[in-house]
Amino acid sequence: MIRLENICKRFGRLEVLRGIDLAVARGEVVVIIGPSGSGKSTLLRVINHLEPFDAGAIYLDGQPIYQRVVDGRVVRDSERSIRQIRARIGMVSQRFNLFPHMSVLQNVMTGPINVRRLPKREADARARTLLQRVGLADKMTAYPNQLSGGQQQRVAIARALAMEPEAMLFDEVTSALDPELVGEVLRVMRQLAADGMTMVVVTHEMGFAREVADRVVMMDEGAIVEEGPPTPFFTTPSNSRTRAFIDAVIRH
User: Fold this and answer.
1) pLDDT band at 95, cuts 50/70/90?
2) Confidence tier at 220 by pLDDT (50, 70, 90)
């Protein structure tokens, strides 16, 4: 469904992504792990075009997205086209980014109404269904400052799902949460995976990666150094950098 070919990204002289090749099948859950600064979050932001890439190509269902080569030169897609692609790929980050002046229900409704042009009644019904799905049916009239971090993150997930994305990107969504709140967010993500949602997840939660991932990808210094199914990946990693990282995380 999503294919990255030789993706490169620089910030000034710093090469953050160095020739990334990655394919994600429809319905697949790919978990990306690696040390801080290895390029994991930047990779997700490139997939969703929150960061433009400097070289390479991204395909969605076999079609190039964000930019294409015409007569030997790179032509960037229109903003309208980029927004349409973004609507197909939902993203949730460690910052909840909820609108503080809106209730939980209004936060989830606003995207479908303003971007999808959904009738208010339909958007309301969709939002209520999703809030029930993430276990927040009793918080619809609450405001973000009245919620725990875990509850806010579940609202953020419901808000992304309200746009009916074909794939979801999760960028360390539990890293800002107290340990006792992590489980409630991971439960929602496990259910999404069980329902067949295509997911690319950057996380330090190794238990989640072992249990839910179809494939685990290890990044280091802007490159993919190893990938494979969870069981052999965690029990017999072939790359020394992967072994060292897993040992350090498990010891911690």
Assistant:
1) confident
2) very high
Indicate the SS3 state at residue 238.
Answer: coil
CA torsion, ordered 102, 105, 106, 109, to nearest 10 deg: 150
What is the maximum span of the chain, computed from C-alpha positions, in angstroms? 56
Q: How many CB atoms lie within 10 A of CB 224?
A: 21
Alpha carbons 86 and 44: distance in angstroms, whole number? 12
Ranges 7-11, 23-27, 82-86: which has the least confidence: 82-86
Quote the CA–CA distance of 134 and 128 in Å, as a whole number. Answer: 10
- Mean pLDDT confidence for 214-229: 97
User: How would you class 60 by CB atoms within 10 Å of its CB: exposed for 0-12, middle for 13-18, buried for 19 or more?
Assistant: middle
**Burial class (CB within 10 angstroms; exposed 0-12, middle 13-18, buried 19+) of 87:** middle
Q: Which residues make Cβ contacts (< 8 Å) with residue 139, sequence separation at least 6? A: 104, 131, 146, 147, 151, 155
Collapsed DSSP state (helix, strand, coil) of residue 209 = helix
- What's the pLDDT at 119? 96
Q: How far is CA 127 from the centre of its chain?
A: 20
Which two tokens mark 177?
């949460």
Whole-structure pTM value: 0.94
Residue 198: closest CA among 41, 51, 43, 23: 23
- Cα separation of 123 and 117, whole Å? 9
Residues 162 and 131: their CA atoms lie apart, in Å, by 10
Q: How far apart are CA 112 and CA 6, in angstroms?
A: 34
